[in-house]
């Protein structure tokens, strides 16, 4: 049919996402994106509107793919926030152990490169991180618990998760990352107990 696109847009986004994930935004050129997707510059601009808009689309694809897994983990133990957070960390470790995708986390990598990003893209990264924190905070919600302590704990959990991705990218062995999550789980359990008894530190 005349005018019909002769390529799979979703597959092109998947391939572009892998390039951004592997190389980072700053080191990903249009030539590299074209080689990965099989699209010329004209098709890239015509379909996605340019590098920045394609990158944001890749970020959304990444967030949707792994966000679903995190959501299932965080809702797997509705009456036990501690176990929900354990499941959340397990999803992170499983992703970091997956050799079929680049090391680390596209979102964490993008956050560390914020200075190189277009302001709209930087805000997009911040919004995705805020969304992750909101998901964790919802899983921590416990009637009668200290709300401020749970807010702080949600930030801590996200910080640990993003740190795991950075450490993985730097070549830290998986057993060492598991050790980090074991300590984090202990911290979360202690903080939840304090929040539930009103003894959280301020």
TrEMBL record:
Residue ranges of the annotated DNA-binding region, renumbered to this chain: 29-48
Keywords on record: DNA-binding, Transcription, Transcription regulation
PANTHER family reported in the protein's UniProt record: HTH-TYPE TRANSCRIPTIONAL REGULATOR YJDC, TRANSCRIPTIONAL REGULATORY PROTEIN
Superkingdom of origin organism: Bacteria
Designated name of the protein: TetR family transcriptional regulator
Native organism: Streptomyces kronopolitis
Residue ranges of domain HTH tetR-type in the record: 6-66
Coiled-coil zones: none
